[in-house]
Amino acid sequence: MTQEKKGKSTAIIAYLTLVGTLIAISMNSDSKNEFARFHTRQAFGIHLLFHALALFLSVWFSEWAWYGLYVFYMVLWGYGFIGALTDKKHLIPVFGSYFQKWFTFIS
């Protein structure tokens, strides 16, 4: 069984909300699967970026900015989630390499 197949369920769970990411981190703490680690870092970054931008927009309100935020979030989330479903390790555009560097505590 390949590395991707072993960590696929953990990788998929990571994309299901921020709580799912925390569950995936604990699921991967024993097995240390590289595929699951990759997608957990990507998902954690996507969720964290969304919440940080939402916090910013809560102070600076613009209805169109909220629409843009949700479209941005759904595109990044969909890209990562489809990668997990298809057993691929594609970095999220623009931010993916940063997520892999910044979230090294996820192992």
Portion in beta strands: under 5%
Order of helices and strands: HHHHH
| Number of separate helices | 5
Portion of residues within helices: over 70%
Q: Summarize model confidence as the mean pLDDT.
A: 89
The major beta sheet can be summarized as: none
Shape: elongated
Radius of gyration: 14 Å
The CA-CA distance between the termini, in Å, is 21 Å
Unreliable stretches: none
Structural class: mainly alpha
Task: Kindly state the number of beta strands.
Answer: 0
Produce a short descriptive summary:
With 107 residues, the protein is mostly helical.
Can you give a write-up of this model?
This protein has 107 residues and is mainly α. It contains five helices and no strands. The chain has helices at 3-14, 17-31, 34-59, 63-85, 96-102. Helix 2 packs antiparallel against helix 3 (34-59). The radius of gyration is 14 Å and the shape is elongated. The mean pLDDT is 89.
